[in-house]
Structure formats: structure tokens, C-alpha cells
Write a structure and sequence with these properties.
The protein has a single domain, classed as Class II aldolase/adducin N-terminal domain (L-fuculose-1-phosphate Aldolase, 3-Layer(aba) Sandwich), CATH 3.40.225. Helix content is 41%, strand content 12%. The chain starts with a helix and ends in a 10-residue tail after the last helix. The chain has a six-stranded antiparallel β-sheet with strand order 3-2-1-4-6-5, sandwiched between helices. The protein is globular and about 55 Å long. The protein is of the alpha+beta class. Helix 1 runs parallel beside helix 6 (169-192) and helix 2 packs across helix 5 (139-149). Bound molecules: zinc ion. Zinc ion binds next to loops.
Length: 225
């Protein structure tokens, strides 16, 4: 990838991370946004991010084995989870990790999100699953996230938050915003009704096609036969 493209990617990450911050999805010092440069290298927001002060030069350039090439900036230790997902999923172009309030409320209940809206299938792939509890900042968390992702673009991380992936930073931002919205809808619905009704299965096919054509980034081995 040319240096021009890397510079563009640095700006994309800053813009994406600041958008997530502006929506209240991550506070200062929490969450991370990354983007793939090529098969083996990524850029990621630095440790203890102050979102207002993010600039393209501060994005940390590193490889998927965890070697850092940038000087004077360190990635968050949570980057191990990003690296695990990038290694497992070649089509993933960007990952956003959040501690957004509604998703995190569901995460402490260890609840996923059933299919409540058709958009959920198109953007995220379907029912969202919650991981088993793991220690933050470990490789194990990456493995647990990969298992909970399945074919989806998002998963809830037990007692922690969410991981969202997409083919581009713009996709990942859009999905992180949508995930928080659907978590809020689910949380609200659970407060007022006894039964949460889900979308009937016969409506899935058309939306799954759109997901697979436009947004899916799971590995080929998981493709439904
Ligand atoms: Zn976290």
C-alpha cells in the first residue's frame, strides 16, 4: 500500500474514532479503533485515547504479531483482540471496540440481542451473541470474540462492551452506532413488555443476501452451504 493510502487510512481512523466519541459510544480513555493496511499490518488508536486530541500522526503502526513500528506511541493492550480478529478474518478492514452504555448493560447480563429489526441482519448478520467471560488484555479475549462473532460483524463482550468489524472504517462506525441503538431498543423493550417479538425467519433470506453482498467479512470456511 502506498504511503498516500496509509495517510488516508490514518485520517479515516481519526474521523471514525471521533465520530464514535461524539455519539457518546466511547468516553476518553476507552475503546479503540483500528484499520488494516495490508495482510500483515494495521494502524490503531494509541493507548489512553483523548479523542479531542487525536491526530493522524498518533495512529500506531504495527504488525499482526504485535510488533510496533511507530515511535513515541503505544497501542492499547486491548489491541490483542484486534490482532486476533485480523489474523482470523482476512476480509476485515476495520475494527472498533467500545464500552457503550446499552451494549455494556446487556454484557453484564451476559445477554446477546435476538433479531429485532431487519437492518440488524443487513448490517450485523443476525442475532448478536455474548462471549464467555475472559480477562481483558489477553489473547484469550480475541479467541472468545472470534467465537461469538461467528459470521456476524459484531459481538458483545461479557462484562466489558462490544467488538464491531467491517470492510472499512466507515462500515465499522456505522455498525457500532447501529449496535448501540439496537441494544438500547432491546433494553427498553425488556423494561416495558414481557415478550420481545423477533423478526420471523421467512423474512431473513433477502436481508441475508444484502448482508453477504454488501457488508459481510467473515471467513469463507463459515459460509452456509
Ligand atoms: Zn475495553
Amino acid at each position: 500500500m502506498s504511503s498516500d493510502k496509509i495517510e488516508r487510512l490514518r485520517k479515516d481512523i481519526v474521523r471514525g474514532a471521533q465520530k464514535i466519541y461524539a455519539r457518546g459510544i466511547n468516553e476518553d480513555g476507552e475503546g479503540n479503533t483500528s484499520a488494516r493496511i495490508n495482510k500483515t499490518e494495521i494502524l490503531v488508536t494509541p493507548s489512553s485515547t483523548n479523542y479531542d486530541q487525536l491526530v493522524p500522526e498518533k495512529m500506531v503502526h504495527m504488525d499482526l504479531d504485535g510488533n510496533v513500528f511507530s515511535k513515541g506511541v503505544m497501542p492499547s493492550t486491548e489491541v490483542k483482540m484486534h490482532l486476533g480478529v485480523y489474523r482470523d478474518r482476512p476480509k476485515v478492514g476495520s475494527i472498533i471496540h467500545t464500552h457503550s452504555p446499552y451494549v455494556t448493560m446487556l454484557s453484564v447480563l451476559r445477554k446477546g440481542i435476538p433479531i429485532l429489526m431487519e437492518q440488524q441482519i443487513i448490517f450485523l448478520g443476525g442475532e448478536i451473541h455474548c462471549t464467555d467471560i475472559t480477562k481483558a488484555h489477553t489473547d484469550e479475549m480475541g479467541t472468545s470474540a472470534i467465537n461469538a462473532l461467528g459470521i456476524n460483524n459484531a459481538a458483545i463482550l461479557a462484562n466489558h462492551g462490544a467488538i464491531v468489524c467491517g470492510k472499512s472504517v466507515d462500515h465499522a462506525v456505522r455498525f457500532a452506532v447501529f449496535l448501540e441503538k439496537i441494544a438500547k431498543i432491546y433494553w427498553g423493550a425488556l423494561q416495558v413488555g414481557e415478550t420481545v417479538f423477533t423478526i420471523p425467519e421467512e423474512n431473513f433470506e433477502e436481508h441475508e443476501k444484502l448482508f453477504n453482498t454488501l457488508f459481510a467479512c467473515y471467513p469463507r470456511r463459515l459460509k452456509k452451504k
